[in-house]
Amino acid sequence: MVVADDLFKALADPTRRTILDELAEKSGQTLFEICSRLSMKHQLGISRQAVSQHLAVLEAAGLVETRREGRYKFHELNTAPLRQIAERWLVADTSGPEKSTP
Amino acid sequence: MVVADDLFKALADPTRRTILDELAEKSGQTLFEICSRLSMKHQLGISRQAVSQHLAVLEAAGLVETRREGRYKFHELNTAPLRQIAERWLVADTSGPEKSTP
DNA sequence: ACAATAGGCAACTGTTCACTTGCATATCAA
DNA sequence: TTGATATGCAAGTGAACAGTTGCCTATTGT
Q: Are A17 and A24 in contact (CB under 8 A)?
């Protein structure tokens, strides 16, 4: 399991979450394709290097997996790490706030 | 819906996640009770003010709700905002466990 | 009233983070 | 090979963030 810290830190940035949205919509995009979509669809004026760094963070968190083909590197979304978020707090939720006095 | 940015930023800090764990285990704790548990159970040498600021961030994200009684302020966990995380990216994914919540 | 308890506000500090800039590497087409 | 494409690495900058420190307000018990 990828460390929880990497996962939550990766999700903390809005640009990275938009990248995840893009990869959810179309899997297997290259770095340049993601750059294009961010600037076209989302009006994000951001450099290629910045996107590359974001993808590295997402990959370290296990949210993005890559495969290399020649000079192209394709990126795919992996939602598996997201499940531990729900499992951490939603399971123990008995939904009844109990009253306590110190 | 609480802005997604507040939610993910709130979850980005390990101390705040530990506070959520504590509130999941025992609901309705006061600031001082949370401080005690963080230092006792988790060996977190952290000031009361720091915990107070963390709680404010968690409350802004909708993850913690508070009620005041005299000089006490009780904190309760609210896991509802966490569901939008799953709903954002896990919707098209069929490989995981079914969600049983209505 | 007085002191102790529970919490709040604001300024300051050191660190982390996102982004840029510049250069380098690797693959492919002519 | 030459040039164009696609990506990688690393140092530097400005802003955001976590935590501390100091002081203040409100409530409660004696």
A: no
